[in-house]
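Board notes, transcribed. Complex of a protein with zinc ion.
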Amino acid sequence: MKIPKSIKRYCKHCRKHTDQKVTQLKTGTKRGSLKRGSIQRAKKRGLGRGYGNKGRWGSKPTKPKRTGAKTSKKTYLRYTCKVCNKSSMTTFGIRTKKLEII
Ligand SMILES: [Zn+2]
């Protein structure tokens, strides 16, 4: 998928259409809800104790995950307004194999 470097798009801060720069956001940096801090919180509340990892709160999943089902990944774009320099993100990721910003 090819996307131009700048797109004329509605800016909610300026309340009109302005030239906006397109940049791709990196995915995979999102923090999960059951990461380390949350595991400790669950233990404090008396959860997640016992034998095994209870299917959760562990490093290894109990079930093998189904992998390789999809060949494309979701890409997220950030639009930066050239007038007010504020940015907005796409609410839904676009499924593409490869993204080119030209
Ligand atoms: Zn703006």
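The chain is about 10% helix and 35% strand. The mean pLDDT is 78.
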